[in-house]
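C-alpha coordinates please, single chain.
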Amino acid sequence: MTIRTVRRAVVAAVVAATATAALTTTASADPAHGNGSHAATEAAMEAQVKNAGVPGILGQVQDKNGTWNASAGVADLQSRRPRLPQDRFRVGSISKAFTSVVLLQLEAEGKLRLDDTVEHHLPGVVQGHGHDGNKITVRQLLNHTSGVFNYTEDPTVHAWISTGFPEHRYDTHTPKELVAAAMRHQPSFAPGQGWHYSNTNYILAGMIVEKVTGHPYASEIDRRVLRPLGLRSTTLPGSSVRMPSPHGRAYSKLFSEAPDAKIYDVTELNPSWGWAAGEIISTTGDLNRFYRALLRGDLLPRHQQQELLTTVPTGDAIPGGRYGLGVMAVKLSCDKTVWMHSGGIHGSTSLATSTADGRHTSAFNFNDDWAADLDGLVQAEYCGTAKPPAGSRTPSPVEALAELR
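Here you go.
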Protein backbone atom coordinates (compact mmCIF):
# COMPACT_ATOMS: atom_id res chain seq x y z
CA MET A 1 0.00 0.00 0.00
CA THR A 2 1.65 3.20 -1.15
CA ILE A 3 0.52 6.63 -2.21
CA ARG A 4 -1.24 6.62 -5.57
CA THR A 5 1.39 8.71 -7.32
CA VAL A 6 3.99 5.96 -6.96
CA ARG A 7 5.82 4.83 -10.04
CA ARG A 8 4.24 6.18 -13.21
CA ALA A 9 6.48 3.98 -15.32
CA VAL A 10 8.95 1.15 -14.86
CA VAL A 11 12.44 2.49 -14.34
CA ALA A 12 14.42 1.69 -17.47
CA ALA A 13 17.90 2.50 -16.25
CA VAL A 14 19.70 0.05 -13.99
CA VAL A 15 21.22 1.91 -11.06
CA ALA A 16 24.77 1.12 -10.10
CA ALA A 17 23.84 -0.63 -6.87
CA THR A 18 21.71 -3.18 -8.66
CA ALA A 19 23.47 -3.41 -12.02
CA THR A 20 25.75 -6.10 -10.68
CA ALA A 21 22.98 -8.08 -8.98
CA ALA A 22 23.32 -11.78 -9.64
CA LEU A 23 20.79 -13.07 -12.13
CA THR A 24 20.01 -16.57 -10.95
CA THR A 25 16.68 -18.26 -11.34
CA THR A 26 16.04 -21.38 -9.35
CA ALA A 27 13.02 -23.62 -9.56
CA SER A 28 11.67 -26.66 -7.78
CA ALA A 29 8.48 -28.42 -8.71
CA ASP A 30 6.56 -31.62 -8.88
CA PRO A 31 8.12 -33.67 -11.72
CA ALA A 32 4.76 -33.71 -13.48
CA HIS A 33 5.32 -30.11 -14.45
CA GLY A 34 7.97 -31.06 -16.91
CA ASN A 35 10.69 -28.75 -18.11
CA GLY A 36 9.68 -25.30 -19.25
CA SER A 37 6.03 -25.38 -18.14
CA HIS A 38 6.51 -21.97 -16.54
CA ALA A 39 9.05 -20.77 -19.08
CA ALA A 40 7.24 -17.51 -19.82
CA THR A 41 6.96 -16.68 -16.11
CA GLU A 42 10.61 -17.49 -15.52
CA ALA A 43 11.64 -15.34 -18.47
CA ALA A 44 9.51 -12.44 -17.23
CA MET A 45 11.14 -12.61 -13.80
CA GLU A 46 14.65 -12.72 -15.22
CA ALA A 47 13.95 -9.83 -17.60
CA GLN A 48 12.76 -7.57 -14.81
CA VAL A 49 15.94 -8.11 -12.81
CA LYS A 50 18.16 -7.70 -15.86
CA ASN A 51 16.41 -4.75 -17.53
CA ALA A 52 14.39 -2.86 -14.90
CA GLY A 53 16.80 -2.68 -11.98
CA VAL A 54 14.80 -4.93 -9.64
CA PRO A 55 17.08 -6.33 -6.90
CA GLY A 56 15.17 -9.61 -6.59
CA ILE A 57 11.89 -11.35 -7.33
CA LEU A 58 10.36 -14.32 -5.53
CA GLY A 59 7.52 -16.36 -6.98
CA GLN A 60 5.49 -19.47 -6.36
CA VAL A 61 2.79 -21.11 -8.48
CA GLN A 62 0.45 -23.86 -7.35
CA ASP A 63 -1.68 -25.73 -9.89
CA LYS A 64 -2.81 -29.25 -10.79
CA ASN A 65 0.80 -30.31 -11.33
CA GLY A 66 2.09 -29.26 -7.95
CA THR A 67 4.18 -26.37 -6.64
CA TRP A 68 6.72 -24.39 -8.64
CA ASN A 69 9.11 -22.04 -6.83
CA ALA A 70 11.38 -19.57 -8.59
CA SER A 71 13.53 -16.56 -7.86
CA ALA A 72 15.58 -14.07 -9.83
CA GLY A 73 18.15 -11.63 -8.54
CA VAL A 74 19.13 -11.43 -4.89
CA ALA A 75 17.54 -11.10 -1.47
CA ASP A 76 20.36 -8.94 -0.13
CA LEU A 77 22.54 -6.58 -2.15
CA GLN A 78 25.37 -6.97 0.37
CA SER A 79 25.52 -10.73 0.94
CA ARG A 80 24.20 -11.54 -2.57
CA ARG A 81 22.23 -14.53 -1.29
CA PRO A 82 19.34 -15.65 -3.51
CA ARG A 83 15.72 -15.26 -2.49
CA LEU A 84 14.28 -18.39 -0.87
CA PRO A 85 10.73 -19.84 -0.93
CA GLN A 86 10.45 -19.51 2.84
CA ASP A 87 11.43 -15.82 2.89
CA ARG A 88 8.88 -13.51 4.50
CA PHE A 89 7.94 -10.09 3.11
CA ARG A 90 5.41 -7.31 3.66
CA VAL A 91 2.33 -7.87 1.48
CA GLY A 92 0.77 -4.39 1.67
CA SER A 93 -2.80 -4.14 0.40
CA ILE A 94 -3.19 -7.88 -0.13
CA SER A 95 -4.04 -7.56 3.59
CA LYS A 96 -7.42 -6.13 2.63
CA ALA A 97 -8.87 -9.53 1.72
CA PHE A 98 -8.04 -10.85 5.21
CA THR A 99 -9.93 -7.96 6.79
CA SER A 100 -12.84 -8.42 4.42
CA VAL A 101 -13.14 -12.13 5.25
CA VAL A 102 -13.48 -11.37 8.95
CA LEU A 103 -16.29 -8.88 8.36
CA LEU A 104 -18.09 -11.33 6.08
CA GLN A 105 -17.79 -14.06 8.70
CA LEU A 106 -19.26 -11.67 11.26
CA GLU A 107 -22.17 -11.03 8.92
CA ALA A 108 -22.72 -14.79 8.57
CA GLU A 109 -22.87 -14.98 12.38
CA GLY A 110 -25.51 -12.24 12.50
CA LYS A 111 -23.24 -9.77 14.30
CA LEU A 112 -23.47 -7.13 11.58
CA ARG A 113 -24.90 -6.55 8.11
CA LEU A 114 -23.09 -5.29 5.05
CA ASP A 115 -25.81 -2.67 4.72
CA ASP A 116 -25.27 -1.35 8.25
CA THR A 117 -24.10 2.23 8.28
CA VAL A 118 -20.64 3.14 9.48
CA GLU A 119 -22.26 5.52 11.94
CA HIS A 120 -24.13 2.60 13.51
CA HIS A 121 -20.88 0.91 14.50
CA LEU A 122 -18.53 3.90 14.78
CA PRO A 123 -20.65 6.86 15.93
CA GLY A 124 -19.07 10.23 15.19
CA VAL A 125 -15.94 8.81 13.54
CA VAL A 126 -16.79 9.57 9.89
CA GLN A 127 -17.97 13.17 10.06
CA GLY A 128 -16.70 16.48 8.76
CA HIS A 129 -15.95 18.29 5.52
CA GLY A 130 -18.86 16.56 3.80
CA HIS A 131 -18.26 13.05 5.19
CA ASP A 132 -21.31 11.49 6.81
CA GLY A 133 -21.11 8.01 8.31
CA ASN A 134 -24.91 7.83 8.34
CA LYS A 135 -24.86 7.52 4.55
CA ILE A 136 -21.99 5.04 4.15
CA THR A 137 -22.40 1.28 4.49
CA VAL A 138 -19.97 -1.45 5.44
CA ARG A 139 -20.32 -2.86 1.92
CA GLN A 140 -19.28 0.49 0.44
CA LEU A 141 -16.14 0.47 2.58
CA LEU A 142 -15.14 -2.95 1.33
CA ASN A 143 -15.74 -2.27 -2.39
CA HIS A 144 -14.39 1.29 -2.34
CA THR A 145 -17.65 3.02 -3.30
CA SER A 146 -17.89 4.97 -0.02
CA GLY A 147 -16.28 8.13 -1.36
CA VAL A 148 -14.26 8.46 1.87
CA PHE A 149 -11.03 10.36 1.27
CA ASN A 150 -7.88 8.23 1.07
CA TYR A 151 -5.65 9.21 4.01
CA THR A 152 -2.47 8.24 2.15
CA GLU A 153 -3.23 11.14 -0.21
CA ASP A 154 -3.20 13.62 2.69
CA PRO A 155 -0.08 15.86 2.43
CA THR A 156 0.95 15.20 6.03
CA VAL A 157 0.71 11.44 5.65
CA HIS A 158 2.41 11.72 2.26
CA ALA A 159 5.32 13.35 4.05
CA TRP A 160 5.53 10.54 6.63
CA ILE A 161 5.86 7.86 4.00
CA SER A 162 7.89 9.58 1.31
CA THR A 163 10.58 12.21 1.85
CA GLY A 164 10.07 12.14 5.62
CA PHE A 165 10.40 8.37 5.90
CA PRO A 166 13.95 8.33 7.36
CA GLU A 167 12.74 10.52 10.21
CA HIS A 168 9.35 8.87 10.71
CA ARG A 169 9.99 5.18 9.89
CA TYR A 170 9.62 4.12 13.53
CA ASP A 171 6.60 6.29 14.40
CA THR A 172 3.41 4.64 15.63
CA HIS A 173 0.11 5.86 14.16
CA THR A 174 -3.30 4.94 15.53
CA PRO A 175 -6.35 4.09 13.40
CA LYS A 176 -8.15 7.15 14.75
CA GLU A 177 -5.22 9.32 13.69
CA LEU A 178 -5.33 7.90 10.16
CA VAL A 179 -9.08 8.41 9.83
CA ALA A 180 -8.76 11.95 11.22
CA ALA A 181 -6.28 12.73 8.43
CA ALA A 182 -8.91 11.68 5.89
CA MET A 183 -11.62 13.73 7.58
CA ARG A 184 -9.60 16.90 6.95
CA HIS A 185 -10.63 16.63 3.28
CA GLN A 186 -13.77 16.56 1.19
CA PRO A 187 -14.98 13.09 0.15
CA SER A 188 -14.18 11.94 -3.36
CA PHE A 189 -17.91 11.68 -4.20
CA ALA A 190 -21.25 10.99 -2.54
CA PRO A 191 -21.54 7.44 -1.16
CA GLY A 192 -22.34 4.93 -3.88
CA GLN A 193 -21.84 7.44 -6.69
CA GLY A 194 -18.42 6.38 -7.92
CA TRP A 195 -15.34 4.26 -7.24
CA HIS A 196 -12.14 5.46 -5.60
CA TYR A 197 -9.49 3.30 -3.97
CA SER A 198 -9.21 4.49 -0.38
CA ASN A 199 -7.11 2.89 2.31
CA THR A 200 -9.28 4.71 4.84
CA ASN A 201 -12.09 2.30 3.98
CA TYR A 202 -10.14 -0.62 5.40
CA ILE A 203 -8.93 1.25 8.46
CA LEU A 204 -12.61 1.81 9.22
CA ALA A 205 -13.32 -1.85 8.46
CA GLY A 206 -10.72 -2.91 11.03
CA MET A 207 -12.21 -0.53 13.57
CA ILE A 208 -15.65 -2.06 12.98
CA VAL A 209 -14.23 -5.56 13.56
CA GLU A 210 -12.89 -4.40 16.90
CA LYS A 211 -16.13 -2.66 17.89
CA VAL A 212 -18.31 -5.67 17.02
CA THR A 213 -16.07 -8.37 18.55
CA GLY A 214 -14.46 -6.50 21.42
CA HIS A 215 -11.12 -7.96 20.32
CA PRO A 216 -8.14 -6.60 18.37
CA TYR A 217 -8.76 -7.03 14.65
CA ALA A 218 -5.40 -8.83 14.35
CA SER A 219 -6.47 -11.50 16.84
CA GLU A 220 -9.69 -12.03 14.86
CA ILE A 221 -7.70 -12.57 11.65
CA ASP A 222 -5.43 -14.97 13.50
CA ARG A 223 -8.35 -16.94 15.00
CA ARG A 224 -10.57 -16.98 11.93
CA VAL A 225 -8.08 -17.20 9.03
CA LEU A 226 -4.46 -17.87 9.93
CA ARG A 227 -4.92 -20.76 12.35
CA PRO A 228 -7.69 -22.59 10.44
CA LEU A 229 -5.63 -22.48 7.23
CA GLY A 230 -2.31 -23.23 8.92
CA LEU A 231 -0.71 -19.99 7.71
CA ARG A 232 2.19 -20.29 10.13
CA SER A 233 4.43 -17.81 8.29
CA THR A 234 1.83 -15.03 8.20
CA THR A 235 1.89 -12.40 10.93
CA LEU A 236 0.34 -9.06 11.82
CA PRO A 237 3.19 -7.04 13.33
CA GLY A 238 1.20 -4.12 14.75
CA SER A 239 3.83 -1.52 15.64
CA SER A 240 6.78 -3.91 15.67
CA VAL A 241 9.48 -2.75 13.25
CA ARG A 242 11.22 -6.10 12.84
CA MET A 243 10.75 -8.76 10.19
CA PRO A 244 10.49 -12.37 11.39
CA SER A 245 13.15 -14.68 10.00
CA PRO A 246 13.91 -15.81 7.42
CA HIS A 247 13.75 -12.73 5.24
CA GLY A 248 15.80 -10.78 2.77
CA ARG A 249 16.23 -7.03 2.67
CA ALA A 250 13.74 -4.45 1.36
CA TYR A 251 14.88 -1.53 -0.80
CA SER A 252 13.22 1.79 -1.57
CA LYS A 253 13.85 5.00 -3.48
CA LEU A 254 11.23 6.70 -1.29
CA PHE A 255 9.00 7.14 -4.33
CA SER A 256 11.48 9.22 -6.29
CA GLU A 257 11.17 8.61 -10.02
CA ALA A 258 14.73 9.72 -10.73
CA PRO A 259 16.72 6.80 -12.24
CA ASP A 260 19.72 7.64 -10.07
CA ALA A 261 17.75 8.18 -6.85
CA LYS A 262 19.36 6.94 -3.65
CA ILE A 263 18.39 3.42 -2.60
CA TYR A 264 17.49 2.97 1.07
CA ASP A 265 17.38 -0.25 3.05
CA VAL A 266 13.88 -0.06 4.54
CA THR A 267 13.60 -3.59 5.93
CA GLU A 268 12.79 -2.28 9.39
CA LEU A 269 9.79 0.04 9.64
CA ASN A 270 6.71 0.56 11.77
CA PRO A 271 3.75 -0.59 9.64
CA SER A 272 1.06 0.86 11.91
CA TRP A 273 0.33 3.48 9.26
CA GLY A 274 -1.06 0.63 7.14
CA TRP A 275 -2.90 -1.29 9.90
CA ALA A 276 -5.96 -3.19 8.60
CA ALA A 277 -5.34 -1.83 5.11
CA GLY A 278 -1.84 -3.19 4.66
CA GLU A 279 0.32 -4.38 7.58
CA ILE A 280 0.51 -8.16 7.03
CA ILE A 281 3.76 -10.08 6.59
CA SER A 282 3.59 -13.41 4.73
CA THR A 283 5.24 -15.77 2.22
CA THR A 284 4.41 -16.83 -1.32
CA GLY A 285 3.32 -20.23 -0.02
CA ASP A 286 0.94 -18.80 2.57
CA LEU A 287 -0.54 -16.33 0.07
CA ASN A 288 -1.23 -19.16 -2.36
CA ARG A 289 -2.88 -21.24 0.35
CA PHE A 290 -5.01 -18.27 1.41
CA TYR A 291 -6.13 -17.42 -2.13
CA ARG A 292 -6.91 -21.05 -2.90
CA ALA A 293 -9.13 -21.27 0.19
CA LEU A 294 -10.65 -17.87 -0.51
CA LEU A 295 -11.70 -18.64 -4.07
CA ARG A 296 -12.86 -22.17 -3.29
CA GLY A 297 -15.22 -20.86 -0.64
CA ASP A 298 -13.49 -22.59 2.26
CA LEU A 299 -13.62 -19.49 4.47
CA LEU A 300 -17.17 -18.27 3.95
CA PRO A 301 -20.73 -19.62 3.70
CA ARG A 302 -22.26 -19.54 0.23
CA HIS A 303 -24.12 -16.24 0.63
CA GLN A 304 -21.08 -14.38 1.94
CA GLN A 305 -18.93 -15.95 -0.78
CA GLN A 306 -21.30 -14.48 -3.34
CA GLU A 307 -20.98 -11.10 -1.64
CA LEU A 308 -17.18 -11.36 -1.71
CA LEU A 309 -17.22 -11.93 -5.46
CA THR A 310 -19.96 -9.43 -6.34
CA THR A 311 -18.08 -6.72 -8.20
CA VAL A 312 -18.55 -3.09 -9.12
CA PRO A 313 -16.90 -1.32 -12.07
CA THR A 314 -13.80 0.66 -11.18
CA GLY A 315 -14.36 3.33 -13.84
CA ASP A 316 -11.54 5.51 -15.05
CA ALA A 317 -9.38 4.64 -12.05
CA ILE A 318 -8.90 1.07 -13.29
CA PRO A 319 -10.29 0.78 -16.83
CA GLY A 320 -11.80 -2.64 -17.35
CA GLY A 321 -11.46 -3.67 -13.72
CA ARG A 322 -14.19 -4.94 -11.41
CA TYR A 323 -13.70 -4.82 -7.64
CA GLY A 324 -15.36 -7.13 -5.15
CA LEU A 325 -14.88 -7.04 -1.38
CA GLY A 326 -11.09 -6.92 -1.05
CA VAL A 327 -10.38 -8.74 -4.32
CA MET A 328 -10.54 -7.72 -7.98
CA ALA A 329 -11.48 -9.61 -11.14
CA VAL A 330 -9.23 -9.06 -14.14
CA LYS A 331 -9.72 -10.35 -17.67
CA LEU A 332 -6.41 -11.05 -19.36
CA SER A 333 -5.53 -10.65 -23.03
CA CYS A 334 -6.01 -14.40 -23.57
CA ASP A 335 -9.63 -14.07 -22.28
CA LYS A 336 -8.87 -15.82 -19.00
CA THR A 337 -10.18 -14.17 -15.83
CA VAL A 338 -8.18 -14.16 -12.61
CA TRP A 339 -8.96 -12.83 -9.15
CA MET A 340 -6.16 -10.85 -7.62
CA HIS A 341 -4.84 -8.04 -5.50
CA SER A 342 -1.52 -6.26 -5.51
CA GLY A 343 0.14 -4.75 -2.49
CA GLY A 344 2.91 -2.29 -1.89
CA ILE A 345 4.69 -0.85 1.10
CA HIS A 346 8.21 0.54 1.40
CA GLY A 347 10.65 -1.83 -0.25
CA SER A 348 8.07 -4.46 -1.14
CA THR A 349 5.68 -4.98 -4.07
CA SER A 350 3.52 -8.10 -4.03
CA LEU A 351 0.86 -9.84 -6.07
CA ALA A 352 -1.54 -12.69 -5.28
CA THR A 353 -3.75 -14.24 -7.98
CA SER A 354 -6.05 -17.18 -8.55
CA THR A 355 -8.38 -18.65 -11.08
CA ALA A 356 -12.06 -18.59 -10.07
CA ASP A 357 -11.96 -22.22 -8.92
CA GLY A 358 -8.84 -21.75 -6.78
CA ARG A 359 -6.96 -24.44 -8.68
CA HIS A 360 -4.26 -22.25 -10.18
CA THR A 361 -2.77 -19.68 -7.82
CA SER A 362 0.37 -17.59 -7.99
CA ALA A 363 2.14 -15.20 -5.65
CA PHE A 364 5.08 -12.91 -6.33
CA ASN A 365 7.15 -10.40 -4.41
CA PHE A 366 9.64 -7.76 -5.53
CA ASN A 367 12.02 -6.48 -2.84
CA ASP A 368 11.77 -2.95 -4.23
CA ASP A 369 9.09 -0.30 -4.74
CA TRP A 370 10.25 1.46 -7.90
CA ALA A 371 10.01 -1.17 -10.64
CA ALA A 372 7.59 -4.08 -10.80
CA ASP A 373 5.80 -5.25 -13.93
CA LEU A 374 3.02 -7.18 -12.21
CA ASP A 375 0.95 -7.37 -15.37
CA GLY A 376 3.83 -9.05 -17.18
CA LEU A 377 3.96 -11.81 -14.58
CA VAL A 378 0.21 -12.44 -14.64
CA GLN A 379 0.15 -12.50 -18.43
CA ALA A 380 3.12 -14.86 -18.54
CA GLU A 381 1.76 -17.28 -15.95
CA TYR A 382 -1.86 -17.54 -17.06
CA CYS A 383 -1.53 -16.91 -20.80
CA GLY A 384 1.94 -18.36 -21.31
CA THR A 385 3.15 -15.44 -23.40
CA ALA A 386 4.57 -12.00 -23.00
CA LYS A 387 1.99 -9.28 -22.55
CA PRO A 388 0.89 -7.38 -25.68
CA PRO A 389 3.25 -4.55 -26.68
CA ALA A 390 2.62 -1.06 -25.35
CA GLY A 391 0.15 0.88 -27.47
CA SER A 392 -1.71 -2.22 -28.64
CA ARG A 393 -4.16 -2.25 -25.76
CA THR A 394 -5.58 -0.19 -22.93
CA PRO A 395 -3.64 -0.22 -19.64
CA SER A 396 -4.15 -3.47 -17.78
CA PRO A 397 -6.27 -3.41 -14.60
CA VAL A 398 -3.34 -5.14 -12.89
CA GLU A 399 -1.10 -2.22 -13.72
CA ALA A 400 -3.74 0.33 -12.75
CA LEU A 401 -4.39 -1.24 -9.35
CA ALA A 402 -0.65 -1.31 -8.66
CA GLU A 403 -0.58 2.46 -9.17
CA LEU A 404 -3.32 2.95 -6.58
CA ARG A 405 -1.97 0.77 -3.81
